[in-house]
Specification:
With 232 residues, the protein is mainly alpha-helical. It has 2 domains: 54 residues, Arc Repressor Mutant, subunit A (Orthogonal Bundle), CATH 1.10.10.60; 141 residues. The protein is built from 11 helices and no strands.
């Protein structure tokens, strides 16, 4: 009778000389770090689908459960509020207002500097689309932002344009004066809409376009403000 040789049986997944790979521990992120990741993904998510996007879908994108998401933000409104502060308010620098009202420099230079800084900080896919969605689907966000822009840009810009035109500044800017300031802001913003919403071709040299728009717009401002004063 033939004797079968004895063999040593090894686990099939372990090669000779190799050790089994330890199980990879699941990393627990610190609270602030995970919150920051949630906000960053929420900015991208709402920029793609609008503020009507569901938190369940956002949680799936993050790879977390919806209850975990609500541990950081108790409801969708609080998450949107955080996105608002992250995108709309944190993109506004306090130094801009000081530079805008520094009358030791020509007005056109100040306004050009403001909009060059503003577009660099705010002209991105996420921010431009969130501006659009806020105006279309979430009036509370849009109204809060426009109040901020009116207070920190339109009113100061009107007062500076009054000074340039030699117009007295005892009274608050009129609705028509505010519209003149808003018109310049809208012309600049339309570049971003064309690029990130309409997806049409826009110039690569944004700085030159912004500079020329501001200078051409401001060239007619003094006469326009003097005319408003005379007609009033």
């Amino acid at each position: 009778m033939d004797a079968s040789p004895l063999t040593t049986v090894r686990p099939p997944d372990i090669r000779e000389g190799a050790s089994p790979a330890p199980a990879r521990p699941r990393r627990r992120l610190p609270h602030k770090e995970r919150e920051k990741l949630i906000v960053a993904e929420a900015v991208k998510f709402f920029a793609e689908v609008g503020f009507e996007g569901q938190t369940r879908a956002l949680a799936q994108r993050l790879g977390v459960t919806q209850p975990l998401l609500y541990r950081y933000f108790p409801d969708k409104e609080s998450l949107i509020d955080r996105v608002y502060h992250e995108v709309f308010l944190d993109g506004w620098e306090a130094d801009w207002n000081r530079a805008l009202t520094d009358r030791s420099r020509p007005l056109a230079d100040r306004v050009v500097q403001f909009y060059l800084s503003y577009t660099k900080a705010n002209f991105s896919y996420e921010r431009i689309r969130l501006f659009m969605f806020a105006g279309l689907k979430d009036e509370s966000v849009a109204n809060r932002y426009m109040r901020h822009v009116r207070e920190h840009l339109f009113v100061p810009l009107c007062l500076e344009m009054r000074a340039e035109a030699g117009v007295a500044a005892e009274t608050p800017p009129s609705p028509m004066e505010i519209e003149l300031a808003a018109g310049l802001h809208g012309a600049i913003g339309y570049i971003g809409l064309r690029r990130w919403v309409y997806k049409t071709q826009t110039p690569e040299d944004m700085d030159t376009v912004v500079t020329q728009l501001v200078r051409s717009y401001l060239a007619g401002m003094p006469a326009a403000f003097r005319a408003l004063t005379t007609s009033g």
